[in-house]
User: Fold Tubulin-folding cofactor B from Vulpes vulpes.
Amino acid sequence: MRGRGNSCQSFLWASASVRRAVSRAAIGRTVLHGRPLGIGWAHPSTGEASSWRGKGRRRLAGPARGRARIGRVRSRGRGRYPRSGGGGCGAGVRRPTGLRTPAGRGEMEVTGLSAPTVTVFISSSLNSFRSEKRYSRSLTIAEFKCKLELVVGSPASCMELELYGADDKFYSKLDQEDALLGSYPVDDGCRIHVIDHSGARLGEYEDVSKVEKYQISQEAYDQRQDSVRSFLKRSKLGRYNEEERAQQEAEATQRLNEEKTQASAIPVGSRCEVRAPGQPPRRGTVMYVGLTDFKPGYWIGVRYDEPLGKNDGSVNGKRYFECQAKYGAFVKPSVVTVGDFPEEDYGLDEM
Assistant:
């Protein structure tokens, strides 16, 4: 029995050793100065490479560089690794994105560990614009196409995907439906171009005028009890507040009467000075007094002595008086003062 127990213990110990060895092999081993380190670990402050058995060490994206933290590891070889889905040996472990052997040495080192997501630009043969999206590397190409349906509007069964680098250089086609997106050289900034084979035309999904829209008459909309208009009526808000609306109309009428009184005291052809808030005084001649089509109320059309205006006496194609370009302006009667305001002499004629 004692020998049997020793055999069982030896078998269990050997099984645990094999599991640890397989787990390490799935992660990937590195060699630094002839010593195996398991996977690439770096000290968080110094950035120096360390053994994977160190308690509390952090696994980083760049070995011996001290970059972004990806996970932590326990002591005595029991590690906690970020899971990436899937099963089997080494499941849930982030694998190195690339391995390289330095020239002149037979050593291998990890150059980086892939992130769980990637940010790419999506373009399509049906659209003239690009969209920046982020996707998981664990998606299969078939699942990835289903997500692209909401972006480009093409059916997943009619898609052909092409991968381009950040410099718009063609890399490869994403034509393996069961392959993972992370198995292709997809990195941040790359572009994935979708070629549609459904027969749709370029810009077909961009012209919203061709999209059938739901329309309802004003009478039917007034009868609905769950509309915004019905809510405003019940709450007496906005234009459905009769008291507030009556007050606004009274204020507008009073303001119009005041402007009319002020405008009646400004005869056409008289000299004036305009003192608008925040602007220096400007002199000119009154050319128009009355209502306009571009804004409500009474306005005074002035022809300035200098090119300090905004128009030539016309607004929106309708002419109110004649003057040179940049000499005409329309102001409110409250900023116009009529009197003896001769043209200012700047002494330019004597020069």
Observations:
- The chain has four domains: 8-88+107-113, 117-196, 215-252, 265-338.
